[in-house]
Amino acid sequence: MLASQTWPKLPASLKRTHDVDLILWRHADAKDAAGPIADADRELTGRGKHQAGEMAEWLRHQPLRSVAVLSSPAKRAVQTAETLRLPIKIKPQLGVGASVADLLGAADWPDHPGAIVLVSHQPALGRLASLLLAGTEADWTIKKGGIWWFTNRVRHDETQTILRAVRNP
Predict the structure, then answer these.
(1) Helix and strand tally (H, E) in the chain?
(2) Alpha-carbon distance 99 to 122, whole Å?
(3) Is the per-residue pLDDT at 15 higher than 60?
(4) Which of 44, 70, 97, 142 fits 26 for a cystine, CB–CB 3.0-4.6 Å?
(5) Which helix (H) or strand (E) holds 162?
(6) Superfamily holding 20-167
(7) Is the whole-model pTM more than 0.85?
């Protein structure tokens, strides 16, 4: 059984003097669409449940503050997010077919204080990773169950976005 953990909240006085984290988490391995099962109703496979649990365990050991978990309404994404054992906000704009603008709008990043975990789909997650690192959208791949962790910070009056970690199950 996975231990539950909450992260401390940041004081309101730390408006933009602190780093803000954006964690892109692609849903874990899911069953193939077959027969009458709609894409949105696809569940995680046994392997996917293991992947999600492994990534959630890793995330719980990271120094994150004020964590907000936002998920696509697709069942496989919600099941992935649930492994963190934190409250989840379902955001329709994170669903299959989302755009980079949809992801950033849902997250209110980098203006949202603390950490945002976005559980969503390809190709939007990969395109957002590309935009944050290379300054342009490109079709980058984030593996199923994979996590890309970005931090936006201000140093010497300059805003920087850095890649903290890439983790795959």
Answers:
(1) 4, 6
(2) 10
(3) no
(4) 142
(5) strand 158-167
(6) Phosphoglycerate mutase-like (3.40.50.1240)
(7) yes
